[in-house]
Design goal:
four-stranded antiparallel β-sheet, about 55% helix
Length: about 180
Amino acid sequence: MNWEYFTKDLSWDSLASVLIGTLLLYGALILYTRFFGLKSFSKMTGFDFITTIAIGNLFAMSIGTGNPKLVVGGVLIGLLYFMNYLISLLQFKSNAAQSVLDNSPILLMRNGAFLEENLKRCKVTKDELRGKLREANVIRLEQAKAVILETTGDVSVLHTDQEMDVESFLLEDVIT
C-alpha cells in the first residue's frame, strides 16, 4: 500500500491550520446560533431546512478543503443565518408573505382513508405512506385520523384508538 497517497500534503503546519480553523469556524457557528436563535437549525419551514444544509456544507468545505477560505466561509454562514432570520421575521409579521414564501402542508389520509388525489399531487406512494404508518405504530388504518405531509417533507401521523376527530386548529393550514 502506498501511504504517500494518504499523507502527501500532510504537515504539522497544515494540521495546525485545520485544527485552529475548525475551532474558529465552530466558535462562529455557536455565536451565530446564540445570536439568531436555535430556530436557525429547525426544520419548521423549507427555508430552515435549506439553511441547515447550506451551513453544514459551507462548514465542511471550509474546514475540509479550504475552499471557500475560512473567513469567507464564516461570512457566508453568517449571511445564511441573517437571511433565514429575515425570512422568518417576514413570515412572522405578514400572513401574505408566509403564504408566498412557504408551502402548505397537505393531507394524505383522513380517518383511515387514503386521499388519492393528494398522494398523486405530492408523488407519495402507498408504500412510503405504509412505512410512515408503521413508524407511528399504527396497527389499523382507522387509527390514522390524519396523515399530513409537512412543509419540511416530514410526515405527521395523528392517530388514536378513540372515536374522536382531530381538533380543527391542528388542520387549519393543511390543504385537504
